[in-house]
Amino acid sequence: MINIMKGTKDLLPQESYKWDKIESEIRYVARIFNLHKIATPTFEHTELFLRGVGDTTDIVNKEMYTFEDKGGRSVTLKPEGTAGVVRSYIENGLSQLPQPLKMYYETPVFRYERPQAGRLREHHQFGVEIYGADSPQQDVEVMMIARSLFARLGITSPELRINSIGCPTCRRAYNDALKAYFASKADDLCPTCRERLDKNALRILDCKEEKCAAIAAGAPSVLDYLCDECRTHHEGVKNLLDKAGIPYVVDDKIVRGLDYYTKTVFEFVVTNIGAKATVCGGGRYNNLVEQIGGKPCPAVGFGMGIERLVLTMQAVGASFGEEPAPDVFLANIGAADDAFLLTQDLRAEGVAAECDVMGRSLKSQMKLADKLAAKFTVVLGESELAAGKVKVKKMTDGTEEEIPLSDLARYINDKKKG
Ligand code: ATP
Ligand code: MG
Questions:
Q1: For a designed S-S bond to 330, which of 145, 312, 339, 372 qualifies (C-beta 3.0 to 4.6 A apart)?
Q2: β 249-250/65-68 pair status
Q3: How far is the CA of 107 from the centre of ligand 2 (A)?
Q4: What are the phi and psi torsion angles at 147 (to 5°)?
Q5: How many Å separate Cα 152 from the centre of its chain?
Q6: pLDDT over 90 for what percent of the chain?
Q7: Whose CA is nearest to atom 2 of ligand 1?
Q8: What is the Cα 8 distance to its own chain's centre?
């Protein structure tokens, strides 16, 4: 017996309707916000992520699935969704399309992490990527997209936490201040953070070790170091959130786990799935397109974990909609082929129809119809075929109506409409 790999999960047929619900709400939200889908490959040149995600991040240092392919190239399974979209934006000249270019993706994401509840080695993300606009409105619209999806899914609880991590100009002074602060506490930091001290002190703020988090709580605030442009932008975002009546908390310790952010960063956090968990993380990355080789282009987006969405929906008792069931089950007595062909005719008319293809007895066909939760059942035998009429039984109350075979599709379709 070969088992599933650690940190990965099967999506089983009896559960998949939950994902269908989320995906259909994603499509709804995408449509009302005018987002267009983009899909990029599951693997890319490793170099893309080294340059894009940043070589001092946990993702690049510890978590990437990197291997050499048979042609000797270094290949990496995508550890996040943005870098591939940036590459595609540049490679396909997407700056020629009307800007801002508003895109979304759904993708598997691979990270070699220590598996635990809500933390997998392969998970899936819904992400939004908007290129070309640098306004606070664009940041707030991105947050509104996430909020709309939460609302559609019946998740009312997430707390929006925002911060600004400035731009390379203001971050230089901040970085010096952080370094000085953490250097004075170096002995109490975890070994990884001691390394981060030299390479990228900002990363220490993202450490999940308790003692590091406690030290980080007393660190200088990035908000005190913002340049005029970044401060104006941050104030603009807060003002617009206020005007829109969207509650938020400013948390000056949010930096996010990716190096590419500038100005706005934000998270949506829930407490329903055990420890405080981030279901959505995002922000602005105005230098990323240029960093990956394109012309400078402001951009903003987020990534949302689908598995954590499912966990949150389950925890708050949100509805996943009805489990899909056939509209009608066509049982047969000695008329398997006729039932089979009639089932196809019904499907051609848009009826979700099912029949037996395993030679079951009538009794076990009816049991099956019950298990499948078919809304109606029909029994087709010699006499029904001869008369061209069938009895249609409504399963919820057992009532029956006699309907001409030629009228069956219309009858079921009408009843479906209610
Ligand atoms: P965390 O702080 O939980 O490690 P992150 O900062 O690594 O999250 P992002 O890289 O911003 O998260 O990813 C966006 C979203 O993807 C997260 O908010 C979360 O919902 C989800 N996510 C991230 N890593 C995992 C994982 N290993 N397993 C399941 N979902 C994940
Ligand atoms: Mg992480």
A1: 339
A2: unpaired
A3: 16
A4: -60, -40
A5: 14
A6: 88
A7: 278
A8: 16
- How crowded is residue 410: how many other Cβ atoms within 10 Å of its Cβ? 13
Residue 275 pLDDT level (bands cut at 50, 70, 90): low
What Å distances lie between residue 337 and 329, 331, 384, CA to CA?
14, 11, 14
Kind and range of the H or E element at 86?
Answer: helix 82-91
Query: How many other CB atoms are found less than 10 A from the CB of residue 270?
Result: 22
Domains of the chain by start residue, with CATH:
13-167+227-316 (3.30.930.10), 328-410 (3.40.50.800)
What separation in angstroms does the CA of 59 have from each of 55, 166, 233? 8, 22, 28
**Residues sharing a CB contact under 8 Å with residue 27, sequence separation 6 or more, in sequence order:** none
312-326 b/e (C-beta count within 10 Å ≥ 16 → b): bbeeeebebeeeeeb
> What is the C-alpha separation between 285 and 288, in angstroms, rounded?
6
Nearest atom of ligand 1 to the alpha carbon of 268: 18
For residue range 52-92, what is the model confidence (pLDDT) as tens digits?
988 888 888 889 999 999 999 999 999 999 999 999 999 99
Task: Name the token pair of 296.
Answer: 């400078």
Indicate the angle between helix axes 168-183 and 191-199, nearest 10 degrees.
Answer: 140
SS (H, E, C) 215-255: HHHCCCCHHHHCCHHHHHHHHHHHHHHHHCCCCCEECCCCC
CA 183 – CA 292 distance, rounded (Å): 32
Atom 7 of ligand 1, residue of closest alpha carbon: 257
For a pocket test of ligand 1, which of 125, 163, 285, 310 has the largest count of ligand atoms closer than 8 A to its C-beta?
A: 125
Which atom of ligand 1 approaches the CA of 258 most closely? 10
Distance CA 315, CA 118 (A): 12
Token pair listed for 328: 């009608």
